[in-house]
Amino acid sequence: MNDNFLTPAQVYQMLRLTPNQAQTLVAEGKLEAAGRISFKHGIMEMYLKEQVQALVECMPQIKRRWNDEQAARLGAKKAAYIREKQWRKAQILKTRKLYFLDSLSELPERTAAIFRVCYYLYHLNHYAKQQGHAYLYDYKETILYALWKEQLKLITLGYSLLNVFFIPGAPRIHLCLDCRVKAQRQGLSHLEFLRAKEHVCTQCGKEDNYYSLYEFILENDEYHFCFHLPYASARKWLVDFNIPEKESAAENKRDGFSAFGRPINEAEANAVELQEIIEELEMFLKNS
Ligand SMILES: [Zn+2]
Question: Long-range contacts for 242-251 (Cβ within 8 Å, ≥24 apart)?
Fold first, then answer.
């Protein structure tokens, strides 16, 4: 791709849009993807700079129309109330962001840089959960790998911020033809069939560790972040290390592994823009 194209993050920044609002713009036929880049975890759609630039001027008008439409739908009073509530939420998040980033200045430089990138990675996770943004998991993997390498350096200095754990999970079973026929006859989905009985069949394919995870905990006395990567993503760079095992527990479902977590909400998308996140992550990679 060349200079004529913009990434979704650049489009959101230029038009001051959340991903949801951009989707509305696409649905209305005012914005359309003009190219795509393949990532390991998904496709990133690209937009023509010319088209986006032409929209900059129209945006205030379009946003006013969206507000009018919302008012017609919900009543003017309720629509205004919702907008104000969202705006307040965004202001609170912006204040919290400044407070958090500011608090890092007390820390040694590298430690501050690490918790700073954790903050942005935490929000990247929520963006990645947004429909059409799975490609962002490529960034997550790259950053956690960089943090792991950083940790290896820190260890030699007798210092540690990162702990990695292995959380064993079930294999994925691919039903063989016989079992598929049996499941169909019993009117069960593949998953229901596997659950309905102790499934022992040597013909069925089995992908070990499919649901296993690596857990990355970055913490010191004041800060705590927790991220997960699927086994297959981090195995190649962790396989030579003795990674302690951890029981799968409910608390592991809190943060950002792709199967859990939640997509970014409007207030959050206003307070922490995707383009800001990407620039922060790239800066961290450049300096690590
Ligand atoms: Zn089978």
Answer: 243/164, 243/165, 243/166, 243/214, 244/165, 244/166, 245/165, 245/166, 245/167, 245/168, 246/165, 246/166, 246/167, 246/215, 247/167, 248/167, 248/168, 248/169
Determine contact, residues 49/57, Cβ cutoff 8 Å. no
For residue 225, the surrounding DSSP H or E stretch is strand 224-230
Distance 258 CA to ligand 1 centre (A): 29
Q: Are 267 and 17 in contact (CB under 8 A)?
A: no
| Mean pLDDT score, 205-229 | 92
pLDDT tens sequence across 20-54: 999 999 999 999 999 999 999 999 999 999 999 99
Centre of ligand 1 to C-alpha 209, Å, is: 19
Contacts 24+ apart (CB under 8 A), 40-46: 40/137, 40/138, 40/141, 41/134, 41/135, 41/136, 41/137, 41/138, 41/141, 42/132, 42/133, 42/134, 42/135, 42/137, 43/135, 44/7, 44/8, 44/135, 45/8, 45/132, 46/1, 46/5, 46/6, 46/7
CA of 142 to the centre of ligand 1 (A): 37
Q: pLDDT digit string (tens) for 220-269?
A: 999 999 999 999 999 999 988 999 998 765 444 444 443 446 788 899 99
Q: How far apart are CA 233 and CA 217, in angstroms?
A: 17
Residue 192 Cα to ligand 1 midpoint, Å, equals 14
Helix (H) or strand (E) holding 236: helix 231-238
